[in-house]
Amino acid sequence: MKELLVISGKGGTGKTTIVGAFAGLAKDSFPTETTVLADCDVDAADLHLILNPSVRETKEFFGLKRATLDPAKCNNCGACRAVCRFDAIAEHENHIKIEPISCEGCAVCFHICPNQAISMKDVTAGRWFVSDTVYGPLVHAKLGVAEENSGKLVMEVRREARRIAETLGSSLIICDGPPGIGCPVISSMSGVDLALIVTEPTVAGIHDMERLYTLAEGFDVELAVCINKYDLDYEISADIEEFCRKRNIDVAGRVPFDEEVVKALGRGEPIISLGHTGRVSESPAAKAIEQLWAEIFNRLFV
Amino acid sequence: MIVSVASGKGGTGKTTIAVNLALTLVETESVCLMDCDVEEPNAHLFLKPVLEGSAKVTVPVPIVNEEKCNGCGRCGEICAFNAILPLGKHVLTFPELCHGCGGCTLLCPVGAIREEPLEIGLVEWGHAGSISHIHGKLRIGSPLAPPVVKAVKCHKQNMPEGAISIIDAPPGTSCPVVASVSGSDFCLLVTEPTPFGLHDLTLAVDMVRELQVPFGVVINRAGLGNGGLVDYCNAENIHILAEIPFERRYAACYAKGGRLVEEFPEVKKVFQDLWHAICVTADRV
């Protein structure tokens, strides 16, 4: 079983568009088996918007416990406030108050309180779902607003996707990754077989790809690059190609700017989708993504 | 006044809005642009500031003196982040998981733990013309963005009284975004008229409402797709403060690191009007 991760560094370069198209293409490549899909962008998950899932299972996600204060036991000594390094404990008119949004759940206040006035409570920090789509099962999540621990939720999503893939005997899991290079990206990247970096020919796109490349290098992850909207700026596209050539990274695809991508999205379906009538897009971007998929498939399985 | 620029979805144009708003305002006000997208900071690519200084951002992580350690295992019990693992008198630490809460050091009964700073990022500052610029850079491989965000926000050095701070926030709605947006006087939520843009805007709206920061919406790439964005804003009584139409020449200008307000007079007008709309909405005229 192989795990393919699609990431970008910079947001909005087209990760979800590519993953959505891959979902349909994988169905062509594996006619007799099921590919598992995982949306690891738990902070702003969007893949479900184009795969039309029906939710089969919903699970609660508990992040770190949070401190809660029992005012009846509190004598407002301020010991908790003195040890909290996250400015989560304030004093209002001589009364101690915990700011839940700032609490990181370290529990130091709980341990230090001389009156046992603080307890650590489980907080639902989000939910994750197993859904059915025409492309195969989708594991996705919704992190609660303003919550921490997106990395831990990413790990739960990936664990469930792997469990399903093992049960079904799937050859492939396709993961839609989060933007950035921080904790959820690190959780998404560890142990994948191939990370496809989707970039765009803009100064921000190439800058962010370079930082992501350095991160991936530290993880010893196999890489490939796709230049999305490559015809937006040929000069910067050439710079990206040069960057990749110097580091021996395969530029596996070059997808042109194509308004059909936005139109398909507006219809709530992937640019290459499997409707009841079969494949429904023959646009320039769709064709380029088909070629990209062939490259990625070869890289993983041939 | 502090105005943060956030979005939910990545790539909707936060940096474009933050940079061009700063360039518009600097003609009449003193302006500081703080790039809090410390995982992937980009504002400097457009502002091209001359950097004048930098400071390391560190988290205090535990160092265990095994000669003093009595092997009680207390540190492992109390650490909520699995960053310290006692194996008898041999104690393993995982500094990259440590949040620097200081619990193990404080609660070790034999005082065998001290703290040492671990570098997780950098804050750099300088000027782009008259715009003061501060940005943070998360060290590549370090997972913890919020302390670097907080360090950027703490570093408003040499800021004149009454200056306007513009914060370029990271995408999403989780802890690094909250660290960026909290404490703002106003938040601009940048979106695009696609189902992804709308869906992630609803998440961002939930976040700013939870933080109780007044906000308004900027629609970028207006005309490219639809997706019920205006209907949603009307139903939720959210002000749409500006719309920037999709034009391939704007996209090409952005790609090169160009400044829209300097190349397109009609866009400059949009930003002047946007500032007026922010002031009206934030009740500050």
Describe the fold and architecture.
The complex is a heterodimer of chains A (about 300) and B (about 280). Chain A is built from ten helices and 15 strands. By secondary structure, chain A is an alpha/beta fold. Chain A has two domains: about 1-60 and about 125-300, P-loop containing nucleotide triphosphate hydrolases (Rossmann fold); about 65-120, Alpha-Beta Plaits (2-Layer Sandwich), CATH 3.30.70. In chain A, the strands form four sheets. A nine-stranded mixed sheet of chain A has the order 3-8-9-2-10-1-11-12-13, sandwiched between helices. A two-stranded antiparallel ribbon of chain A has the order 4-7. In chain A, helix 1 (about 15-30) crosses helix 10 and helix 5 runs parallel beside helix 6 (about 185-190). The model of chain A has no long low-confidence stretch (mean pLDDT about 95). By secondary structure, chain B is an alpha/beta fold. Chain B has two domains: about 1-55 and about 120-280, 3-Layer(aba) Sandwich (Rossmann fold); about 65-110, Alpha-Beta Plaits, CATH 3.30.70.20. Chain B is about 35% helix and about 30% strand. Chain B has eleven helices and eleven strands. Chain B has helices at about 15-25, 45, 75-80, 105, 145-155, 175-180, 195-210, 230-235, 250-255, 260-265, 265-280, and strands spanning about 1-5, 30-35, 50-65, 85, 90-95, 115-130, 130-140, 165-170, 185-190, 215-220, 240-245. In chain B, the strands form two sheets. Chain B has a nine-stranded mixed sheet with strand order 3-6-7-2-8-1-9-10-11, with helices on both faces. In chain B, helix 1 packs across helix 11 (about 265-280). Chain B starts with a strand and ends with a helix. The model of chain B has no long low-confidence stretch (mean pLDDT about 95). The interface between A and B is large, with 61 and 59 residues.
